[in-house]
Design goal:
Length: 293
């Protein structure tokens, strides 16, 4: 494991590399598996801006045969027509129901409830076949950091504050909320560990703020973002128009915005911070950074 000082030196190099600690990954996996053992249905939240990069490669292995509903969150930050194509692509690739959601409006609660109940029915029927009484479906919301899991839980539980307490074999910290008479929701999200060997995926997670800024240089991430959008003529022009530059570089944007140091050199560090904030807030435009091959 790298010492903090060694990691900081590594991140100051020109080449960006996102690093995660194996110990943290193992701990997150154990915590997630505990939650998954309690439920009938899993709601996996993805970031609509990176629908592939915000997914977990080993999700089928992790979930086993549990049914899954995919939510493409932050859909207000992407192009609607592109989003429709991605919903269709993911549904075909995963054989799971897929919905696009925006937690600012979040009008899809009834639809989510209907799908969860449908997905849980085989499990409920199997329980009843053993002579047990019918019970509500049990569901958990999972996903990588900062994809909007907690916001979705808050929206789902807004109309119902009824805590139904701990279930048998569940630690007292695990609390459930009754969404409706047929669904109980675990009120804490399951965090999928960022076990990624693919550095391009890791960079895209950094672009959307799903990686702690302690793990990378913001300036290098901003440069990588500009390099990536430069490969898409349409996206590159949107960035150029927004910042009023001909060349899509951190230096040119800093000069155009008059973000200069005392020596009149472009303040690239400050500029990088604004670029990332503008992108994450959707001020520059609506983008999907993954490509489907």
């Amino acid at each position: 494991m790298l010492l903090l000082e060694e990691l900081e030196k590594k991140l100051k190099k020109d080449k960006l590399h996102i690093h995660w600690y194996p110990g943290h990954i193992a701990k997150a996996e154990r915590a997630l598996k505990e939650k998954l053992n309690l439920v009938d249905v899993v709601i996996e939240v993805l970031d609509a801006r990176i629908p592939i990069s915000s997914s977990y490669n080993d999700i089928k292995k992790l979930l086993g045969d549990k049914p899954r509903l995919l939510l493409l969150n932050k859909s207000d930050l992407v192009d609607k027509e592109e989003l429709k194509r991605w919903v269709k692509i993911l549904a075909e690739e995963t054989s799971c129901p897929v919905l696009s959601v925006d937690t600012k409006s979040f009008k899809c609660v009834p639809q989510i409830e209907k799908i969860v109940q449908k997905l849980s029915e085989p499990r409920i029927q199997a329980i009843m076949a053993k002579g047990l009484l019918r019970r509500p479906a049990r569901v958990v919301v999972v996903g990588l950091p900062n994809v909007g899991k907690s916001s979705i839980i808050n929206k789902l539980t807004k109309s119902s504050k009824t805590k139904v307490g701990a279930k048998a074999g569940v630690t007292r910290q695990q609390q459930w909320v009754r969404i409706n008479p047929n669904i109980d929701l675990l009120d804490t999200p399951g965090i999928i560990p960022m076990k990624q060997d693919d550095q391009m995926k890791a960079k895209k997670l950094a672009f959307v703020n799903s990686v702690s800024e302690n793990a990378y240089s913001v300036e290098l991430v901003a440069k990588e973002l500009l390099d990536l959008v430069s490969q898409n003529e349409k996206y590159a022009q949107i960035f150029k128009d927004y910042y009023g530059v001909e060349n899509l570089t951190v230096e040119d944007i800093a000069i155009k915005r008059n973000w200069l140091r005392n020596s009149a050199e472009p303040d690239t560090e400050r500029c990088a911070g604004y670029i990332m904030k503008d992108f994450r807030d959707g001020k520059i435009g609506k983008f999907i950074l993954d490509c489907y091959e």
